[in-house]
Structure formats: C-alpha cells, structure tokens
Design brief:
The complex is a heterodimer. By secondary structure, chain A is an all-alpha fold. Chain A contains nine helices and no strands. The longest helix of chain A is centred in the N-terminal third of the chain and has 23 residues, at about 25-45. Chain B has six helices and no strands. The chains are: A mainly alpha, B mainly alpha.
Chain lengths: ~210, ~70
C-alpha cells in the first residue's frame, strides 16, 4: 500500500501492519482487535448501567468484530487527516452506538398509553415548584405541536421528547438514519418556537444563533 | 433558569448546525483537534461544534472517542 503523505510514524506502522503482505499482518490484526474490544467494553459501560454481566461482553465483541470488518474494508480510504487510531476507533464507537440502539428494544421502558404532556416540564428540567407555569408550558407546546407539525414530526417529537426514546433506538426500530431523526426533531423545534414567538409566549428578541 | 427560559433553550436551533452525517464524517479529525486544542476545533469546524452542542447522541460519540484516545480505557 502506498504511504499517505505526511503521516505520523505510528499511523504509518498501523497501515503497514494491516497490509496483508506484511509478515506480521496476523499479529497486527490481533493487536487492533484487542484495542477495539477494550474500547467497546469501556464504551458500553460508560454509556449505560442497564447492561451488565455477559451482555456487556457480547455487545462489545459484536461491536469490535463489525468495526474490524469496516476498518479493513475502508483502510484504503484513510487519508491521514487524523491519526490512524482516531480514525479506526471512530468505527467501534459508532458500532457501540448502533448496537445500543438495537439493544434498547430488548427491554424497553413500560409503554406509555398516551402522550402524557404533563411530563414535558420534567423532561425540560423545569423546577417542580413552578407548578402553574409548568402546566401552562405543556399546554402551549401541545397546542403548537397540534397546529404546526406534520403527523410524522409529531410522532417523532413525542417519542424522543416526551417518551425519552433514544435517537439510535428509533433508528434501529424504523430503519432510518440518526441524521433523519435528528432533522425531524430539529425542524419540529424550529416550528414550535416560531409558533410560540408568534403567539407571544416566547420572546422574539432572542435570535436563534445567539442562543446556541 | 425559569420554565420559559428552559423551553426557549430547548427549542432554539442553530443555523450553522451541519447535522449528524456531516459531523460524523469528520469526527476523527475533530477529535484529534479537540485533544490538542478545543478552540481550534470549534474555529475550524463551527458547524460541527454547533451540531455537537445540540445533538446528544453525536456528542456521546465524541466523548467516547476522546475517552478511547486518552488511553483511560
């Protein structure tokens, strides 16, 4: 494999090891897999306490194996814009995200019978002592949702915001990308805000970009 | 922060936000920059920084990647 220009020595060594013609190729694969597995285990534990015992190892092994396949398949696309290890570790981190999304449905929280808009203030971290304002807030948001969102936007907004379903879990269930779900919620937030500014509930003087 | 301020914060969107796909495509480059100088990462990729500030799952991916790079795992 041709050496990528300007590559640091460690990254160049990884590329050499992953070249099938290298005498120590097998050892290189084992070394990379060992690292990916260690990262996957740590990442599963860091992200959730809902998965324990052998399930952590199962999920980590699957993530490491799938990341390894992706790295080997895409090795030639590495352009040296980052260290090789950073590029490679990204694959296992994304695999863990995806697998945790699927795992969510193995033991989902108790299903919610209705939309339970009274949960909204709590989901936004509103002080429980602000009872009256919290109730009003839930009512005005619900009205804005009813008036401005499409059925699809409403459904995704309710699942993500009210029910707290993780984006990656929705992706796994519905076979869509994280980007698509994020964009749906992004557009819903923008439309709800515009409605609440229009009806005077929110201050229009706070520009979007100022508040980011 | 009162209830309306919390709601306003939740609803705000940043027009610079590049979305998940574009942010994930450069996550490795962004992470290496953050590891050395977080300010440089934000300066070079303002749209990615805006996205990571708003998208919990992508921010989690960056946090995990930085943890992996730190050698703590």
């Amino acid at each position: 494999m041709e050496r990528v220009a300007g590559l640091d020595d460690e990254s160049a060594e990884w590329l050499r090891l992953l070249d099938p013609s290298a005498a120590d190729h097998r050892a290189g694969l084992d070394r990379l897999h060992e690292r990916l597995l260690r990262i996957a285990r740590a990442e599963v534990r860091r992200r959730t306490a809902r998965i324990v015992g052998p399930e952590v190892d199962d999920l980590a092994h699957q993530a490491a194996a799938d990341a390894m396949l992706a790295i080997l398949a895409k090795r030639d696309t590495f352009r040296g814009e980052s260290r090789f290890t950073t590029w490679a570790y990204r694959f296992v981190i994304l695999e863990v995200s995806s697998k945790l999304g699927r795992h969510f449905w193995r033991n989902p929280p108790a299903p919610l019978d209705d939309e339970q808009w009274e949960r909204l203030p709590d989901r936004l971290g509103v002080d429980p002592h602000e009872h009256a304002e919290a109730r009003h807030l839930a009512e005005v948001v619900r009205a804005a949702v009813d008036e401005t969102l499409t059925e699809h936007q409403r459904s995704v907004f309710v699942e993500v915001v009210l029910h707290g379903v993780p984006l990656d879990a929705l992706c796994a269930r519905d076979g869509v990308t994280r980007s698509a779900v994020y964009k749906t919620v992004f557009d819903a937030r923008r439309k709800i805000r515009a409605a609440l500014v229009a009806n005077g509930y929110l201050d229009p003087s706070v520009r979007q970009e100022e508040s980011s | 922060m009162n209830a309306r301020e919390r709601l306003a914060r939740f609803l705000r969107t940043d027009p610079r936000d590049v979305g998940c796909d574009e942010a994930m495509a450069v996550l490795h480059v962004y992470a290496d920059l953050v590891a050395h100088d977080a300010g440089a990462a934000t300066e070079r990729y303002p749209g990615v920084a805006a996205h990571l500030a708003a998208c919990g799952p992508c921010r989690e991916d960056l946090t995990g990647l930085l943890a992996a790079l730190s050698g703590d795992v």
